[in-house]
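Try this one yourself first.
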């Protein structure tokens, strides 16, 4: 009885050791670029020796077509050989020593590729900034598109700076500002400072500053004529909005350089308006 228990324990240890060894082998094969199923098919072929795809498929409980496709991939990778005997195609894996040679060749190829990439690095670095430093832009059209742009200005709590025209505003957007945008901005505690073209509507707008968590500054139209709204917000974003009855469109630009330039322009205009 004691010997029987010892044999059970010994067999259990052996099975665990074999399982752990097999996991290490699979890991090494995956490092060579094989997928899990490719590893299983390769190891099955190595264990069974020369066999047709049907035997390998049955052993691994795979669909025969699936096994055949995987074997073909392993042939292309140079890990499986095949030959035809009496009209039947047989497959066999590389021997363990051949597998070592295969790994050595792959290692040399990868090292060669790595060296080539290193030599090309200056050219690659010249290409990268051309796209990496370009401003990111998103375009919007229609009432809902413009509303989406305004919603973007409320995604953080930083102060919004802007140039605003109140003379021409799309009728549907007027209700949006009163019922949704301004209350939400106030609720989030986001202040704004705005430059407006001096006119009767702008003066009425200015009188409501305190209750709407904003400061407005007026400049003569001939000093800074503009027909669109410009919002400068976040760390690197600018929104250009045209919300007249005939042209309802907007663009969000994400660029630190453009953001900082327009912010400087705004601060200059604000200083002029305070004088």
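Now uncover the answer:
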């Amino acid at each position: 009885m004691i010997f029987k228990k010892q044999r059970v324990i010994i067999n259990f240890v052996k099975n665990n050791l074999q399982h752990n060894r097999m996991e290490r082998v699979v890991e090494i094969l995956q490092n060579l670029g094989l997928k899990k199923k490719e590893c299983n098919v390769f190891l099955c072929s190595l264990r069974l020796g020369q066999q047709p795809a049907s035997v390998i498929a049955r052993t691994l409980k795979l669909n025969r077509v699936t096994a055949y496709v995987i074997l073909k991939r392993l042939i292309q990778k140079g890990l499986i050989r095949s030959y035809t005997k009496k009209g039947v195609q047989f497959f066999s894996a590389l021997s363990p020593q051949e597998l070592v040679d295969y790994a050595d060749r792959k290692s040399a190829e990868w090292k060669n590729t790595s060296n080539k990439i290193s030599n090309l690095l200056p050219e690659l670095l010249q290409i990268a900034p051309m796209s990496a430093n370009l401003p990111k832009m998103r375009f919007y059209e229609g009432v809902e598109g413009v509303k989406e742009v305004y919603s973007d200005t409320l995604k953080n709590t930083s102060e919004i700076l802007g140039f605003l025209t109140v003379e021409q505003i799309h009728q549907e957007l007027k209700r949006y500002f009163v019922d949704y945008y301004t209350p939400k901005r106030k609720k989030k505690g986001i202040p704004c400072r705005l430059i407006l073209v001096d006119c009767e509507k702008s003066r009425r707008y200015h009188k409501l500053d305190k209750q709407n968590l904003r400061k407005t500054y007026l400049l003569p139209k001939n000093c800074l004529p503009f027909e669109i709204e410009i919002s400068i917000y976040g760390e690197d974003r600018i929104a250009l909005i045209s919300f007249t009855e005939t042209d309802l469109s907007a663009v969000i630009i994400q660029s630190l350089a453009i953001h900082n330039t327009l912010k400087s322009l705004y601060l200059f205009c604000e200083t002029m308006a305070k004088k």
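Discussion: The domain at 2-98 is CATH 1.10.10.10 (Arc Repressor Mutant, subunit A). The chain has nine helices and ten strands.
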